[in-house]
Amino acid sequence: MIHLLEVAVRWPPETFLCWKLEGLAERGFRTTVASEQVFDPDARLEGVKLVRIMPRSRRHAGWRVALRDGALLLLRSPRRLARLRRSIRRNLPPAERDRYGGTLGAYCAFLRLARMRPDVVHFEWNTAAVDYLPLFEVWRCPVVTSCHGSDVAIYPHMPSHVRYAAKLVEVFDRAAAVHCVCDALARDTEAFGLEASKRRVIRPGVDPSAFAPRPDPNAAGAALRVVTVGWLRWMKGHEYALTALRELLDRGVPVELDIVGGVPDAVVGSSGEDRRIAHTIADLGLGAHVRLHGDLPTAEVIERLRAADVLLHPSVSEGLPTVLVEALACGLPVVATDVGGVSELVTDGVEGFVIPPRDPAAIADALATLWRDPALRARMGAAGRQTVLDLFTLERQLGEFQELYEEVTRS
Prior knowledge:
about 45% helix, alpha/beta, 7-stranded parallel beta sheet, single chain, Rossmann fold, about 400 residues, 2 domains
């Protein structure tokens, strides 16, 4: 039985991670999540154990925790404690320890994890892998990291993330394997010196029995029901969707837009766009045509997808969005910008339309075409569901992760 440790994942995890973790547990993995962002301690995942890490906000006063965890590590594995001490000194010069709340904060962050003996560690976010880099040489087991999008496409190029960009090279050098959700991101990793032999492309998957088409398509001539799903972040391109909506209404095309997504501040560490989006809706006179739903549980997201005629995904930067797979599984045509790995999932004119980013006119043209032609919507929806059944099932994804973990633990 392989012990998989996922580090720095929020609890409860995002939906696509819940599917992965529960699916691997069902396949016989001993699965543990170590989290400092515990939003619901009573949440349960079948076969998955939660280990709480001290939040950064409390580390400056965590001497009791550090003393207890340090004593336990000293009793059970003094060599590990010595390795941790050396690793903190070597990897975290005094100036960098301020990010952890000083030397004490660093020990509070690492001691509990240093006591664990996983067979393989996975960081879903490279930003977290950078933060916990000193533990790589303490565990002495294979470490896998993931590239989902912004961590290689945006953050390394931001002036505020100079340290992260430099450390990302070291993370890739020390990792046993790097999981990329699409070929486009795998190519992006070349700029950070990642060896081709370490790259593993495992695309998202969904359960097609949970994401299924609705039986009653919208009638011809009715208002086009558009849905977009994603965090209210600048890279999701909501302003381009709203500008396109205004253009459609001015053309005489009846259209409604449901925006599903929460404000990401506490979760992904970037500022939300909720106020800007609300202002844009008011400024363009779209109040009667747009509904903001906030963050919704999976069951309600499925309801929104099944109630829509088309999914719009106007992002300016992506990996390979799971919501596109979900929409196709629900028999929805999609209108998505040609960023990241979108074109690896959607063929323009087959499962939907792939359009240039930052182009409201192209969005409006694609949506108008789908409004005028319900038969085209049906054909694209059927093609999209078949694509998911052939290539993007959850079972396929779980099997590929299982192979990856078995491979790195053997080597």
